[in-house]
Amino acid sequence: MKNLVSIFLFLLYCTCTAHVLRAQDSSDVKLSYGKKGFELATDDDNYKLQIQARFQFRYATPYDIDPVNHIQLMQPARQIAEINRARLKIGGNAYKPYLKYYFEYELKRGALLDFRVMFEKWDWLKFKVGQWKIEYTRERLISSGKQSLVDRSLINQYFTLDRQQGVTIYGNVGNHRLANFSYWAAVLTGSGRSATENPTNDLMYHARLQWNFCGKEMIMEGSDTEFHQKGIGAIALAGATYKGPYNLFSSNGGANIYNVPDSITPFYDVSQLNLETAYMKRGFAWQSETHLKIIDDQANNTTSNLAGTYFQAGYFFHQLFPKFPEKMEIAGRYTIFTPHIDTRDVIHNEYSLAVNYFFKNHLNKLTAEITRFEFDDPGFGVDGRYRFRVQWDISF
User: Fold this and answer.
1) From 57, 60, 84, 136, which residue has the greatest number of CB atoms within 10 Å?
2) Where in this chain does the entry annotate a coiled-coil region (predicted)?
């Protein structure tokens, strides 16, 4: 019932906005359809409204999660069939083409994920306020509907900053050759999605510098569905520091990596870094990330050092073999996570192989994936397990 009410409110908003658009301009509002769904716009483009729905259907066995320990790794097998994501996206601009807005709603969980307003008049200096996925890792920034594999890697859950509320300045500077850079600098609440304040009254500070070494800003997609003939790539360094009761973030908000007794009020001082690379050319797509995270538990006077890396590549083999299906991509990923880099006594590995078939680029895509998890822990020994998933992701 809650989701039905939410859908009704969104549709009511869209209807009212259409009337406002008509009132702002004497000419009729244009209706079209493109990559961002249905679009209403005035002739001068000062007002624009884009509406898109997205559904993600998934089958998985023996489970759908990325396990975090041996207990989850070896849990009893199940067969899971579900609507993994159901999203409604609304964006556009108002008053001027450079004053943009966007919000995204998860219909399945009844959660408002994104809401932000962007001032993007100049390429070199832009502003954003609201809630969004922070520009910390490429893997998290890429929409779950534009991934090369079914979902993100094993290490995403440990290092992502996910969605936060705050303000940021960003832009793109330089020429169309080697000297092309993008930057982001943000001040955030540091408490995750839907949190309007940090309980400890501290803030999160984040910065990212990205070198677009091919002279053009790198796109945020996992597969080279555009078949870039000249190539496009980036090397980025990002960092963040924050204090408060959380050292882990997800689409559900702030959390903690380790279990915290109810008798202890957690307080963490966290610093983390990410070095990433990405490149696309003629159907080939590459990306990697290397993370370091230092968690200073000031309640228990302990420090944890975490590290993680993944390497991922995909290719449309039709570029080499004309008889290979033109819309089919094969992609693979290797991930390693070390929760204690001082001793390196615990190591988690992920090996994934996926086949994508693009009916309509990322807007209509079928993916089959097999993953091998291998965990090495002195307390449990070495264990491994396979996971199989099939996913259909469609937007309209």
Assistant:
1) 136
2) none
The pair of three-digit structure tokens given for residue 388, joined into one six-digit string: 């199989």
Amino acid at position 107, single letter: L
Amino acid occupying residue 133 = K
- 308 three-state secondary structure: strand
Q: What is the CATH number of the domain that holds 391?
A: 2.40.160.10
**Beta strand 48-61 pairing with 381-395:** antiparallel
pLDDT in tens, 312-371: 999 999 999 999 999 999 999 999 999 999 888 899 999 999 999 999 999 999 999 999
| C-alpha dihedral sign at 183, 187, 191, 193 | negative
Q: Please give, one letter per residue, the 3-state secondary structure of 36-90.
A: CEEEEECCCCCCEEEEEEEEEEEEEECCCCCCCCHHHHCCCCCCEEEEEEEEEEE
Number of domains the chain contains:
1
Question: Tokens 């202890």 map to which residue?
Answer: 264
pLDDT in tens, 54-101: 999 999 999 999 999 999 999 999 999 999 999 999 999 999 999 999
Backbone angles phi, psi at 189, to 5 degrees: -70, -30
Determine the structural domain holding residue 41 and report its residue range: 2-395
